Amino acid sequence: MGKSIKRVYDEKLLRVKVLSHNGDKIHIKLPVNFVKKMIQNNALDFFNDLDDIVDGKKLISLVTRALDENISGEVAHLERKNGDIIKIILD
């Protein structure tokens, strides 16, 4: 059996939602403290393939600033010309 991951219910999460034009749905939830460590280690690179819609480094900078300012809610909403929607939410 795998390990059970327990979540502290007052911890903040970074959520990434991708709704593709062909019906695929991707939902990623990561604890903010983990995201901060990933950013410090240059390991948050799942935005690198989105170069036609956004600069990945600028998006990481945006997320970092939002975390530093303790902002909650939707911090980015991106719509591609093919209909894909990408949302980044802090809650």
Low-confidence parts = none
The arrangement of helices and strands along the chain is EEHHEE
Whole-number average pLDDT?
A: 83
**Order of the strands making up the biggest sheet:** 2-1-4-3
Q: Level of helix content?
A: 10-25%
Number of distinct beta strands: 4
Biggest sheet character: 4 strands, antiparallel
The fraction of residues in strands falls at: 25-35%
Give the count of structural domains: 1
Class derived from helix and strand content: alpha+beta
Shape: globular
Question: How would you describe the overall organization of this protein?
Answer:
With 91 residues, the chain is of the alpha+beta class. It has one domain (13-90). Helix content is 24%, strand content 30%. It is built from 2 helices and 4 strands. It has a 4-stranded antiparallel β-sheet with strand order 2-1-4-3. A hairpin with a 5-residue loop joins strand 3 (73-79) and strand 4. The longest helix is centred in the last third of the chain and has 13 residues, at 56-68. It is globular and about 35 Å long.
Q: What characteristics describe this protein?
A:
globular, alpha+beta, four-stranded antiparallel beta sheet, 91 residues
Chart the SSEs and their pairings.
Blueprint: E1 13-19, E2 25-31, H1 32-40, H2 56-68, E3 73-79, E4 85-90
Antiparallel strand pairs: 1-2, 1-4, 3-4
Précis, in short:
By secondary structure, the chain is of the alpha+beta class. 24% of the residues lie in helices and 30% in strands.
